[in-house]
Amino acid sequence: MFVDIIAKVEKLLAGRFFGLKCALIGYACIFFFSNPSMFALSPELKVCGGCVDFQAKIDRKDYLLSTVTTRYTAGEHMGKSEFRLTFPLLCKLLHISNKYQAYALQLIIGLGTLMMAAYIFVSLLGSRFLAFCSVLAFCFIYAGKAAVIDTSGFLDAYSFFFILASMCSPHPILTLFTSQLAYWNDERAIFSHFLVMLWWQLKLSGSDGYHWKKILFPGIHSICIAISFLVYVFVRMILTQKYGFINSDGTMLCFPWTFKYSGLVLWQAFEGFIIIVFAALFILVHNRKYLAAGIFFLSLLLQYTVAMSIMDLTRSVAYIFPGIFIAYMICSQWIENKTYIKYGVCIALFYSFVFADYFIIVPREPSLHYPIYMKVIKKMMHIES
Fold first, then answer.
1. Which range (28-37, 242-251, 342-351) has the least confidence?
2. Phi and psi at residue 369, in whole multiples of 5°?
3. Is the pLDDT of residue 356 over 70?
4. Mean pLDDT over residues 171-175, rounded?
5. Contacting residues for 291 by C-beta, under 8 A, at least 6 apart
6. pLDDT tens digits for 84-98?
7. pTM for the whole thing?
8. pLDDT confidence of residue 373
9. Which helix (H) or strand (E) holds 24?
């Protein structure tokens, strides 16, 4: 029976537009199981003081080179968007003026993210079925579903798209360009690019068994990412000194409030994919690739530490997602018996599917979002929330 199901799925995914098929099915699953609320897009929404304001982020297109600190304080969400210029620039170029248009663009961006993920997975696994399962599992973590469920205007979906584009870019100059767009959409993308650099270094050294010289000597993509960071710092200095932009640290150093959620946040970072990540680290250590294991672990730890120092934990820890693709690459290159990979992918999908979603912004208590199938079960069994 299981073999028949795989055969039917493979037949469905055969032919052209494999990535688009995976993305559309993934979107259907997100809409059905995550049940995103569209109230934030409605005119009835009253934005609270200090909260994210989707329309205000769109209107930023009219004053791109003006500071937002005259309108918002550093403690407000909008006050932290001082240097986040990618989205308003896109709104200006595409003549986007309202939340409905912006959300439509976000859905298109999210489709691109899932399509890129599908092609990376299939290139690593060599199986469309396993790649499809991996995309579905990816749709159950925040990085994969942000484009659909984020109707408030946090805009992480754009960062995730450009980060993944940096990993897929066939030309180094394109990597430089996409990393720039990611940096200027959210500063957390800077730390994600440590993992992106590791991705390119491991791809470069994969044929040599991750030889330490190949890992430490930067390839052209890694050099472009480093140059992109230097350009970002330089332009940021210009914006600060010439245009009056202000660096804000209003969300940093939140450890007293975030520490109690450390385990839940670690789970949220990967969900079922944590099996693949642990397996990759074990493989590297077992094969005495200590340098690769150490850099991979420290890169993950850096992103996790950054996430734990910021108030909106769910969004912040999602920027660790390039580690998932690195783990897949390691497992696909070092595990000879592909049956183990098949089991790992299926288990990752199962665990990502069955657990409910938490959205954590400290110091508030985590909000629990039940998927539709859980709501139906609770309704049938008369279980009160």
1. 242-251
2. -115, 110
3. no
4. 95
5. 210, 212, 215, 216
6. 999 999 999 999 999
7. 0.93
8. 64
9. helix 18-29
- What confidence score (pLDDT) does residue 255 get? 67
Q: H/E/C letters for each residue in the chain? A: CHHHHHHHHHHHHCCCCHHHHHHHHHHHHHHHHHCCCCHHHCCCCCCCCCCCCHHHHHHHHHHCCCCCCCCCCCCCCHHHHCCCCHHHHHHHHHCCCCHHHHHHHHHHHHHHHHHHHHHHHHHHHCCHHHHHHHHHHHCCCHHHHHHHHCCCCCCHHHHHHHHHHHHHCCCHHHHHHHHHHHHCCCCHHHHHHHHHHHHHHHHHHHHHCCCHHHHHCCCHHHHHHHHHHHHHHHHHHHHHHHHCCCCCCCCCCCHHHHHHHHHHHHHHHHHHHHHHHHHHHHHHHHCCCHHHHHHHHHHHHHHHHHHHCCCEHHHHHHHHCHHHHHHHHHHHHHCCCHHHHHHHHHHHHHHHHHCCEEECECCCCCEEECCHHHHHHHHHCCCCC
Helix (H) or strand (E) holding 58: helix 54-59
Phi, psi of 361 (to 5 degrees): -130, 110
